[in-house]
Specification:
The protein is an alpha+beta fold. The chain has a single domain, classed as Cytochrome p450. The protein is 31% helix and 14% strand. Bound molecules: protoporphyrin IX containing FE (HEM). This is Cytochrome P450 82C2.
Amino acid sequence: MLDAFYSFKQNLILGAADSNMVPLIWVLALLLNNRHALKKAKEELATHVGKDRPVEESDIKNLVYLQAIIKETLRLYPPSPILALRAAMEECTLSNGYHVTPGTRLLLNAWQIQHDERVWTDPDEFKPERFLTTHKDLDLRGQNFELLPFGAGRRACSGVSLALQVIHLSMASVLHCFDIDKTGDQPVDMTESASLANVKATPLKVLLQPCLSPEIYQL
Ligand code: HEM
């Protein structure tokens, strides 16, 4: 069975199944289009985990480049781009002239905030390094209003810790266990779906080639 596993590249087609799956698909798609970042992530795993054991939860704190990749992915492709369930507490007038009275129900466009060129240099570019330099102190838990993939305040995502744990560990495991590749020469299509959940519009096709010794894959 393992021989067969090793002798073929696995051709996987990924579509979003749940909220944790959405960012994983975007991360893989971004890495396939940005090979330098993929190489750096694999080098980081080789340095901090090595090839003789699987990734463990305790490794994640050392994988700072991978953490930056996840942040940059959630910035570019927030799975919940619109934050709802808000009402204005005070009267205010926005810079575009809209007058908002107290109690007005509000929808927040987190996607737009996370692509705002007044905050982010090259806002549409995939640059994980920004989270190790210019934006290194920004977290994902609603403390910084320029980065809101899990919302903020009382109605912020109550699953944020679980979600981050699952995303980091599963992404680290995939990149550690497999060399990944595109199925063709064209860049991966990055079209976003026009809906309340920001799902990749087309399924992601990815080739997986095991790159560790067979024992690591046995449960
Ligand atoms: C990548 C994964 C996830 C993302 C991006 C995400 C994002 C969000 C966002 C943006 C909100 C609305 C926050 C706001 O309006 O300020 C939310 C709410 C919520 N999320 Fe998540 N979420 C994720 C995973 C999870 C998981 C794994 C759980 C549970 C195990 C969870 C449970 C909830 C709950 C219960 C709320 C409603 C909180 C409330 O209204 O008081 N989420 N999530």
